[in-house]
Structure formats: structure tokens, C-alpha cells
Write a structure and sequence with these properties.
The complex is a heterodimer of chains A (399) and B (366).
Chain A (H helix, E strand, L loop, with lengths): L5 H7 L24 E5 L4 E3 L8 E5 H26 L14 H10 L5 E3 L5 H6 L4 H9 L30 H15 L5 E6 L6 H12 L4 E7 L2 E2 L2 E2 H4 L14 E5 L3 H16 L5 E6 L18 H10 L2 H11 L5 H24 L40
Parallel strand pairs in A: 4-5, 5-6, 6-10, 9-10
Antiparallel strand pairs in A: 1-3, 2-9, 7-8
Helix pairs in contact in A: 2-3, 2-5, 2-11, 2-12, 3-9, 5-12, 6-7
Chain B lengths: L7 H9 L13 E4 H15 L3 E5 L15 H5 L4 E3 L4 H13 L3 E5 L10 H9 L1 H4 L9 E5 L15 H5 L5 E3 L4 H13 L4 E5 L1 H4 L2 E4 L1 H4 L11 E4 L4 E5 L2 H15 L4 E5 L2 E3 L3 H11 L2 E4 L8 H10 L3 H4 L5 E3 L10 H7 L3 H12 L3 H4 L3
Parallel strand pairs in B: 2-3, 2-4, 4-5, 5-7, 6-7, 10-11, 10-13, 13-14
Antiparallel strand pairs in B: 1-8, 6-12, 9-11
The chains are: A alpha/beta (399), B alpha/beta (366).
Chain lengths: 399, 366
């Protein structure tokens, strides 16, 4: 497994704790950590048709820890801002928050390579940012403004970025699409792996099983990632799924259960998945057990099908950010001040983006008929009535 | 009603004296079936661009359920000609995902009847993504296969999807008639950067049409969105596409024997609709009939009628437009009933005669 964790070899060879930083001292302002690396145990994986799973421990450098923490914090903050914008009626329509599930995306992203691709469902704000879209690009899309990553034309479920194909509003549809991305990786021979994420609700969609079947038949480098947050809208997994062992539901496709509340576990599992898929063994299923704090969408208070106590308990005992914070502090990998500094920076960044996402203009009205086709052949795009014709506009540059 | 031409009978006589014959056919050089023309198109485009591949049920080792992909698997192998299981939503989704990633899939439906299993990926995944992503994610894909009624296959396997798909912005919808149409338009569809629904016809597959040297060349591409005047005429315009073009042309032949010259417009593309060609013809003939195999309500003919009503073409009409369509019933199995459910040349002749005689007040309490 050391191949998967280059830093582990370094750790074992003794090159540890030697970063030339000022050792931490008990002072009013402790700016630096005392250790440069630390190793953490990971909650055991459950394996389906696999002899060996991902690394059961993860080594983090101080830099890794700070980066992961910052990403977790940004994602949480984006969703807090989104929730507020929705309550202010600035975000319209649907809005599905990712709070509670951040460790899945952040850990996975940390393991992805430049060549890999991702597609997910509508709970996509965090993923979009992790795939390279600025906080402003995400929040402005939610507010429907021109600085949005889809110029305000997609809305909260239709965000895209480089190697990131949405953001899909149709439950389950992203899974065969993700297998198609994997097909393209294999067809091109570019060595990339596609990750198709879906929830426990979508896990029962028929098209998933069609995608599983073809992915296995054709050995596509596709990782099917089930984010099991316990509830598909308001229906608990026990009430929707004849088997709640989502990692085993690929049957002939090997699977791994991962603690989706532990960012190190999701990172190690993803490293393993990439290794697995790039070795030509075909697809893999990963179940990330996680939890969502908010309702299914903003219109759902999330209290009729679960108790407030349950949500509170998860927040207090399993929160992906708090638990990670505790671990990296306890191991002296980072200091409280460093994390505080990140918190402050993140808050400032998201607050500024929020402000701008509220004040930006929407795109010009001519973009109503913009980019319907890459190569438009309609002379006129019909408007509401024959007296209000529209012209097709090419907004993005064509090759 | 104010007529923009002399009274009908007089006008008819006047026009008969100016009868014209079709001059639109190029020099015939070689008879080719529609099936072979489609096969040529796919073969040439696969040869030309490595990003093009075919997937669908039985397209590879079986040579295609209707043999459209015959020989391609032998030539291009497993990588580019891919047999799928019988799981339309899954393989259509995979094809669209591959197009997201920049490949150019040709997704064959054994028949378009089964595309309903996958319609979410055609509409929600393929047609809308370029717009939703503000131009970030183009979807260069072709969905193709036989559409409409075959013979004796009853209700679930006899349905035209022209109206269904042409309803949706983001898609281009093509319905070829002849071998030349099939080849030139399929090549255009494969090269097109947008999602294209390409509606073929099982009965036309085996028909031979003359193809010119030009059409046989690998450079031959027809423009999407341009209709073809299959036959010029001055008395009445028949607008049709796909298999209905055959029906309309047969009717036009018969009507010519009675001194009525039909202008037959083969739409070739349903979306975008070449309404300019229709309007110009109406300005010439002042009478219009639409011919299609699909159901009447919200159909292709209904759309053409609406566009006539909304445009200055309306003032060129001497009589209301009639639609000749499939009957408004699910397709029956029994031969005699099936025959009644689809438009035949005599139906077009009868409709044309009625429209030209302006019999609407008597007959069309529809």
C-alpha cells in the first residue's frame, strides 16, 4: 500500500518531524505546528468481493491537514451562505445543501488526478468548487447572476467545471452518464478514471444496474460512489432499499464501505479506487456512509422522518469537520491558531463572494436564446408569440 | 373569405395549362438501397474521425438488427462497434456521457419505439446540457434507428417520433427519405456538434434509389435544415418527410394524370423546419396539404399549419390547409385495419381534390 501513500514511506524511513519551523511554544499566538506528519487509523472498511482494501491508516503532512481542513471549511461555509440566500429568497427554486457530507467530496478530490472526471447529482455546490470553480462562480450560479459558472442559466443543480459534468437534476441519470465518461477514458486510453456519485435514494434506480452491467462487461474505469446519507428525500434507507449494503449492490462488481465522515478514509479509499481501476480491473462500487444535516432540499425542514436529536447527535459525535479538527489538533499536526486563521479567511472569502453574488447583474436578456445549439441552424428562435422573435446568440467562443 | 387568386375553378384550369414536370432529379448513376447508403455514411465517418463509434443492440457481431451496420465490426473491431445489452436507458446514458467527454457516439436504437425507455437521456441529458452549462458542455451525438410504422408489428412497435423529438429545443431532428438523403444527412448529423435524432424507416431500408457519383463520394454531405423539392408543381403543395414522401410522390403521380400538378416538398429535417421553402411554395400554389405517418394531434402537420397561420403565408392560401396523417388510434395488428390507420396515396389524392375544390365547408367539420 505504500505505493498509494508516498509520504508513508518517508515516515517509515525516519524522515519525520524535521520541518524547519519554529517549534510550538506555549504562547499567546502559536502559529506553527510541532509535527510535519502524522499517521491516523481509519475505521475498518467493509469489503465486497475484494481480498484487500484501501490503506487502513492515513499519513497526513501538516500541509495536507491544513488544505483538507480549509476545503472542508469552505464547503460548509458555502452551504451556510446558500441556506441564508435561499431564506432571503435570492436563491430560487431548489437548493440542496451538502452540509454534513463534506468529507466525501473533499477526501475524494484530494486523491483525484488531473485526468480524472466526476459527475454527481444535484447536491453539487461543494463538488463544483472543489473541481476548480471559484466560490463566486458557485454562489453566483445559485443567485442566477452572470458571474455564475453557468452564467445563471443552470441554477443550483446544473453546475459544471473542467472534468466536472454536473450537477444533474434527474435522480440516477448521472450514473450511466458517468459510465460514459469512463467509456471515453478507456476509448482514448488516457488513463483517467470517472467517478459517478449518487445517493442512497438513487441507488434503487434501474438505470444504475444497467450502468453497472455494462461497466463490468466492458471493464470501464468507473467508480460508482454511493453517498449514503440515510435518507432519500424523506424515506430512510431501511424503508427504500431491500438491501442497505450499498457497497455490495453491484453484485459482480467489487465494493468497499467507507466511513464517509472521515476525510482521510475517503481519500485513502479513492486512492485505492484509482489504483484498482487504472490496473484494468474494471469498475468499483464505493459506499460512503455519511449524513446530511439539512432537509433534502430547502423546502424540507427534515424533521418529519427523523428526530432533531438524531441530527444533533451526529453533529456532536461524527461531524466531519469537528472530528477532523480534533484529530489534527490532538496529533499536534496543526495548531488552533492556524485553523482559526483558516476559518477567518474562509469566512471572509465566502462572505465577499456572497455579497458579490447578490449584487451582480443577471446576464443580458439576449442570452435567453444564447447557446441553445453549438451550431445553430434556426433562422429565428421563437419567443412567446410570433411578434416577439428571438435571435440565437453565441456566447461562448466556438472552436 | 377573400381569395388571393382567381376563383378556384378558374385558377385550377389556368394552372393546369402551366403544368410543369420535375427537373430536380440529378443524373442517375447507380441504384443504392437506403440501408447501404446509411452504412456508407457511418463507414466513411468512422474512417474520417476516430472519435466516431457505434453502440447499440446487435450492431456488431449480428451486423445490426436491420443490417445497417453490416461489416463495420469486422472492419473497426470491438473498440468502435459495440454490442450493448438490451438496456436502452443505460446505453443511451453511457453514449451521452461519452459525448460529454468529447467523443462522437452513434447510438442506435433497434427501433425508436425503444427510445422511450431512454427518452430522459435524449431530452434531459443530451438536448439541454449545452444550454444549461452556458455552452460549456457540447453534446455531439447521433441517436438513430428505424422510426414509425413497419408492417404487421402492432401498436407498441409502430409509432412515429418526429413530433415527439422535434418538440424539444436543443435537438436537431432529421427524417430522410431517399438513399441520397440518408447518406448526406447522416454524415452531416455525425459531423454536427449538437445532438441529432435521426429517424429512419424500416420499409425504406430495402428500397433502391439512384445515387449520383457526387452522392457516392465520401465528401457528400447535405445541409441539415434544408428541405428538398422532390417534384415541382403549381396547383398544390404537399409537405412530407421520410416514408410519407413516398406516399405523397405516388399521389402526385396520380394527380398529374388528372391534370393537377403537385409540388412535393421533402422536409428532410423536421427541426429546424425549413419553413421558407414551404412558404415560397404556398405563394406559388396557394394550397397546402401536409402528409405524415404520425398521429395528428400536436404533430408535424399541426406545427406547419400553425406556422402558416402565424405568417404571411396565410394570405396566400385559397383554402384551409389539410393534414393527412396516421389515424388517431394505436396501431392495430389486423392487415385490413392497419391499412386504414396509415395514409396511402389515395388518401392524399382525396385530400388534395377536396382542398382544391374548397370543399372544406362541407367535409371538414373536424
Amino acid at each position: 500500500m505504500s505505493k498509494l501513500i508516498p509520504s508513508a514511506a518517508k515516515l517509515l524511513s525516519g524522515a519525520t518531524i524535521s520541518k524547519s519551523t519554529t517549534p510550538a511554544v506555549i504562547a499567546s499566538k502559536t502559529s506553527y505546528s510541532t509535527k510535519s506528519e502524522s499517521t491516523f487509523e481509519i475505521k475498518p472498511y467493509k469489503l465486497h468481493k475484494l481480498e484487500k482494501g484501501p490503506a487502513t491508516s492515513a499519513t497526513l503532512t501538516a500541509e495536507d491537514a491544513l488544505q483538507l481542513y480549509e476545503k472542508l471549511a469552505v464547503l460548509r461555509r458555502i452551504e451556510t451562505a446558500s441556506g441564508n440566500l435561499y431564506k432571503e429568497k435570492i436563491i430560487r427554486g431548489f437548493c440542496h445543501l451538502y452540509s454534513g457530507q463534506e468529507a466525501v467530496a473533499v477526501g475524494m478530490r484530494a486523491a483525484l488526478r488531473d485526468v480524472d472526471s466526476v459527475i454527481t447529482a444535484y447536491r453539487c455546490h461543494g463538488w463544483t468548487h472543489l473541481m476548480g470553480v471559484s466560490v463566486l462562480g458557485v454562489l453566483s450560479e445559485l443567485t442566477g447572476r452572470r458571474t455564475g459558472c453557468s452564467r445563471g442559466k443552470g441554477g443550483s443543480m446544473h453546475l459544471y467545471g473542467r472534468n466536472f459534468y454536473g450537477g444533474n437534476g434527474i435522480v440516477g441519470a448521472q450514473v450511466p452518464l458517468g459510465a460514459g465518461l469512463a467509456f471515453a477514458h478507456k476509448y482514448r486510453g488516457d488513463g483517467g478514471v470517472a467517478f459517478a456519485l449518487y445517493g442512497d435514494g438513487a441507488a434503487n434506480q434501474g438505470q444504475l444496474f444497467e450502468a453497472y452491467n455494462m461497466a463490468k462487461l466492458w471493464d470501464l474505469p468507473c467508480v460508482f460512489v454511493c453517498e449514503n446519507n440515510g435518507y432519500g428525500m424523506g424515506t430512510s434507507v431501511d424503508r427504500s432499499s431491500a438491501s442497505t449494503e450499498y457497497y455490495a449492490r453491484g453484485d459482480y462488481i467489487p465494493g468497499i464501505w467507507v466511513d464517509g465522515m472521515d476525510v482521510m478514509a475517503t481519500r485513502e479509499a479513492t486512492r485505492y479506487a484509482i489504483e484498482y481501476c487504472t490496473s484494468g480491473k474494471g469498475p468499483l462500487v464505493m459506499e460512503m456512509e455519511t449524513y446530511r444535516y439539512s432537509g433534502h432540499s430547502m423546502s424540507d425542514p427534515g424533521t418529519s422522518y427523523r428526530t432533531r436529536d438524531e441530527v444533533q447527535e451526529v453533529r456532536q459525535t461524527r461531524d466531519p469537520i469537528t472530528s477532523f479538527k480534533e484529530k489534527i489538533l490532538a496529533s499536534d499536526l496543526v495548531t488552533a491558531d492556524q485553523l482559526k486563521e483558516i476559518d477567518t479567511r474562509v469566512r471572509k472569502e465566502v462572505d465577499e463572494a456572497t455579497k458579490q453574488a447578490k449584487s451582480e447583474a443577471e446576464v443580458g436578456l439576449e442570452e435567453l436564446s444564447g447557446d441553445i445549439y453549438y451550431n445553430n441552424l434556426e433562422h429565428v428562435i421563437r419567443g412567446i408569440h410570433p411578434g416577439a422573435p428571438l435571435q440565437h446568440v453565441e456566447v461562448v467562443a466556438r472552436n | 373569405m377573400a381569395l388571393k387568386s382567381p376563383p378556384v375553378l378558374f385558377g385550377l384550369l389556368a394552372r393546369i395549362s402551366r403544368r410543369t414536370f420535375s427537373t430536380s432529379n440529378a443524373l442517375a448513376s447507380k441504384p443504392v438501397t437506403v440501408r447501404d447508403a446509411l452504412n456508407q455514411a457511418i463507414d466513411e465517418e468512422m474512417e474520417r474521425d476516430d472519435k466516431v463509434f457505434v453502440l447499440g443492440e446487435e450492431v456488431a457481431q449480428y451486423d445490426g438488427a436491420y443490417k445497417v451496420t453490416r461489416g463495420l465490426w469486422k472492419k473497426y473491431g470491438d473498440r468502435r462497434v459495440i454490442d450493448t445489452p438490451i438496456t436502452e436507458i443505460g446505453f443511451a446514458g453511457i453514449a451521452v456521457g461519452a459525448a460529454f467527454a468529447g467523443l462522437k457516439p452513434i447510438c442506435e436504437f433497434m427501433t425508436f419505439n425503444f427510445s422511450m425507455q431512454a427518452i430522459d437521456h435524449i431530452i434531459n441529458s443530451a438536448a439541454k446540457t449545452f444550454y444549461m452549462s452556458a455552452g460549456g458542455v457540447p453534446v455531439p451525438i447521433v441517436f438513430r434507428g428505424p422510426n414509425g410504422a413497419a408492417a404487421g408489428v402492432a401498436a407498441q412497435h409502430s409509432q412515429c417520433f418526429g413530433a415527439w423529438y422535434s418538440h424539444c429545443p436543443g435537438l436537431k431532428v432529421i427524417m430522410p427519405y431517399s438513399s441520397e438523403d440518408a447518406k448526406g444527412l447522416l454524415k452531416a448529423a455525425i459531423r454536427d456538434p449538437d445532438p441529432v435524432v435521426f429517424l429512419e424507416d424500416e420499409i425504406l431500408y430495402g428500397l433502391q434509389f439512384p445515387m449520383s457519383d457526387e452522392a457516392l463520394s465520401s465528401d457528400f454531405v447535405l445541409p441539415i435544415g434544408k428541405a428538398k423539392i422532390e417534384r415541382e408543381g403549381s396547383h398544390i403543395t404537399l409537405v412530407c418527410a421520410g416514408k410519407a414522401t413516398d406516399t405523397a410522390l405516388q399521389a402526385a403521380n396520380e394527380l398529374a394524370g388528372k391534370g393537377i400538378e403537385c409540388e412535393v416538398i421533402n422536409l428532410r429535417t423536421i427541426r429546424p423546419l425549413d419553413f421558407d421553402t414551404i412558404a415560397r411554395s404556398i405563394a406559388k400554389t396557394h394550397h397546402l396539404i401536409t402528409v405524415e405517418q404520425g398521429w395528428p394531434q400536436s404533430g408535424i402537420g399541426a406545427e406547419i399549419c400553425a406556422r402558416v397561420m402565424e405568417s404571411s403565408a396565410f394570405f396566400e392560401l385559397d383554402a384551409p390547409v389539410w393534414r393527412v396523417t396516421g389515424a388517431d388510434v394505436p396501431m392495430p395488428y389486423a392487415r385490413s385495419l392497419e391499412t386504414l390507420a396509415l395514409p396511402r396515396p389515395p388518401d392524399v389524392v382525396a385530400a388534395a381534390t377536396s382542398v382544391l375544390a374548397n370543399k372544406i365547408a362541407n367535409e371538414a367539420a373536424i
